[in-house]
């Protein structure tokens, strides 16, 4: 039963057969039914009914329940990590050390942040009124999440919304619904009232569109690809909903000639391969000063070749499969087309030979792939692949490096590698991205915002910035003169 509505698991009433597959083996992990419009209707009604009570709880009360949620999730860490691995193929080392503890930390952060929400203090701007700001919840939030970090994305969407007094209906990606439901169940167990957190699982075109177009949903928050984000904004515009979009990325990784090359090479490998490259902030375009280019390519190729692919449940495995065969084939398609237009595949570009004849033979695996010899305007440099593929291109001076880094429609994240303070400051100022790392690439932290520039979207996840986005600002203007006839009435009354 893969719908979670008003504190209960239910079957969906939509078209049959929601099948969750383990992408490492193709084995069926779970079967259920998809949500149809009717389920979305009930979930939105449950969220609407719960909203006034939840908004009426004090910040301290909401915070206490969310702290309890952190404890419930923490207790279940091992089970959650195993469940996430089973539906995504992520190595257990990643789910155990990153997905689950990151989620628990996020819950703890928002439990604290729930008590920090404040409007500006009162001030008497007109001399005749006291003005103050109320920050109020928006109401019912409809959220849609992708499949790359199902548990963390559920947390990023649910937590700021409920910390601010909203209720929510979340639709996770159809291929990875299991940990979002486990998260919602943990909310109930922690004592968060029924209807505050609801999950509908189903297809984007059916359940997703029913949710964002629903007249009783007040705000839409979406994490996913840029084309779907555009469609969501269009649908939401029909009912003038507030929209929050966290979209695709194509992060540049700029290595200046004075960089610590050992650090840059290790950073590029970890930063491009995390989550098998299915990370919206993953390093995808390495721009390396021509004087260090060969050394960089050689170093990355050597480490890529040594990466151990295989059983995601084995702590010794470095890299799992992609999230689905469809995604693996899409990534392989980009690489094959690049071969066709003259790219050099330095390493990778194929299914790992060592997995042939094993239980993982039909898994969605793809070797870490390093590509050179392509031009800046080629498809593999401009478009988001979402796989374990790094493209390296040389540059000759700092102006060119920054120009190339900014030359895609995306602007989610970037990194610059240098020991020169002035260069570091210039890169952080001039690279157009929601996050710029200096001498690192990937780390995130609950206290700091995550979100895009340009076609990577608008709105922030995590941090107090996201909390504010799930509120609306009300100005209260209170007369302090007590006069029946106000000065400004002169505009109407002549005498
Ligand atoms: P996707 O856009 O295909 O799907 C995302 C979600 O949207 C899924 O739940 C899907 O069912 C739903 N959906 C699809 N069509 C829909 C429609 N017409 N109406 C409503 N909902 C619809 O993305 P994906 O392939 O699941 O995830 C990968 C993408 O997510 C990448 O582009 C990646 O960069 C992006 N992403 C961004 C961030 C970020 O914070 N910016 C984080 C993670 C992933």
In brief:
The chain has 495 residues and is an alpha/beta fold.
Task: Explain what you see.
- This protein is α/β, with parallel strands linked by helices and 495 residues long.
- The protein has two domains: 3-246 and 465-476, Aldehyde Dehydrogenase, Chain A, domain 1; 251-438, Aldehyde Dehydrogenase, Chain A, domain 2 (3-Layer(aba) Sandwich), CATH 3.40.309.
- The protein has helices at 37-56, 59-75, 77-88, 92-113, 150-163, 178-190, 204-212, 226-237, 261-273, 293-305, 325-340, 379-382, 398-405, 421-430, 463-469; strands at 3-5, 8-10, 18-21, 28-32, 129-137, 140-144, 167-171, 197-199, 219-223, 242-246, 251-255, 283-289, 344-347, 369-372, 389-395, 410-411, 413-417, 435-438, 453-454, 457-458, 471-479.
- The strands form six sheets. A seven-stranded mixed beta sheet has the order 13-14-15-12-11-17-18, sandwiched between helices.
- Helix 8 links the parallel strand 9 and strand 10 (242-246).
- Helix 2 packs antiparallel against helix 4, helix 4 (92-113) runs parallel beside helix 5 (150-163) and helix 5 runs parallel beside helix 6 (178-190).
- The longest helix is centred in the N-terminal third of the chain and has 22 residues, at 92-113.
- It starts with a strand and ends in a 16-residue tail after the last strand.
- Nicotinamide-adenine-dinucleotide is lined by residues 144-148, 171, 173-174, 204-205, 208-209, 212, 223-225, 228, 231-232, 246-249, 280, 384, 386, 412, 450, 452, 456-457.
């Amino acid at each position: 039963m893969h719908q979670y509505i008003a504190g209960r698991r239910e079957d969906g009433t939509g078209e049959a057969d929601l099948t969750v597959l383990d992408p490492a083996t193709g084995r069926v992990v779970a079967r259920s039914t998809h949500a149809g419009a009717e389920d979305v209707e009930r979930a939105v009604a449950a969220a609407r009914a719960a909203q006034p009570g939840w908004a009426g709880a004090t910040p301290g009360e909401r915070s206490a329940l969310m702290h309890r949620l952190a404890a419930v999730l923490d207790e279940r860490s091992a089970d959650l990590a195993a469940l996430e691995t089973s539906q995504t193929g992520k190595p257990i080392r990643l789910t155990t050390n990153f997905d689950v503890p990151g989620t628990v930390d996020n819950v703890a952060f928002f439990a604290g942040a729930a008590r920090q929400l404040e409007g500006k203090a009162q001030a008497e701007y007109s001399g005749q009124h006291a003005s103050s700001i109320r920050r109020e919840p928006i109401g019912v939030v409809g959220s849609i999440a992708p499949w790359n970090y199902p548990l963390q994305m559920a947390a990023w969407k649910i937590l700021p919304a409920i910390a601010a007094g909203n209720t929510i209906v979340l639709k996770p990606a159809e291929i990875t619904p299991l940990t979002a439901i486990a998260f919602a169940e943990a909310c109930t167990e922690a004592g968060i009232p029924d209807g505050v957190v609801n999950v509908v699982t189903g297809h984007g075109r059916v359940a997703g569109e029913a949710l964002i177009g629903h007249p009783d949903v007040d705000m839409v928050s979406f994490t996913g690809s840029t084309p779907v984000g555009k469609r969501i904004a269009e649908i939401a515009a029909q009912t003038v909903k507030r929209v929050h979009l966290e979209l695709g990325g194509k992060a540049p990784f700029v290595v200046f000639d004075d960089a610590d090359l050992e650090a840059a090479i290790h950073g590029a490998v970890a930063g491009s391969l995390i989550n098998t490259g299915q990370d919206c902030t993953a390093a995808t375009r390495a721009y390396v000063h021509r004087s260090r280019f060969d050394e960089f390519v050689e170093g990355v190729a050597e480490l890529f070749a040594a990466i151990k692919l295989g059983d995601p449940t084995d702590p010794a495995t470095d890299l799992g499969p992609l999230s689905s065969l469809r995604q693996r084939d899409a990534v392989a398609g980009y690489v094959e087309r690049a071969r066709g237009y003259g790219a050099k595949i330095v390493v990778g570009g194929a299914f790992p030979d060592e997995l042939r004849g094993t239980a993982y033979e039909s898994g969605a695996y793809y070797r870490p792939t390093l590509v050179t010899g392509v031009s800046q305007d080629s498809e593999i440099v401009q478009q988001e692949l979402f796989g374990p593929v790094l493209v390296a291109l040389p540059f000759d001076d700092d102006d060119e490096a920054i120009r190339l880094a900014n030359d895609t429609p995306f602007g989610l994240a970037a990194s610059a590698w240098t020991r020169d303070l002035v260069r570091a400051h210039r890169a952080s100022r001039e690279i157009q991205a929601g996050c710029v790392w200096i001498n690192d690439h990937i780390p995130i932290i609950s206290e700091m915002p995550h979100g895009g520039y340009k076609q990577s979207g608008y709105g922030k996840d995590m941090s107090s910035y996201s909390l504010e986005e799930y509120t609306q600002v009300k100005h209260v203007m209170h007369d302090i003169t007590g006069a029946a006839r106000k000065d400004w009435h002169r505009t109407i009354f002549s005498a």
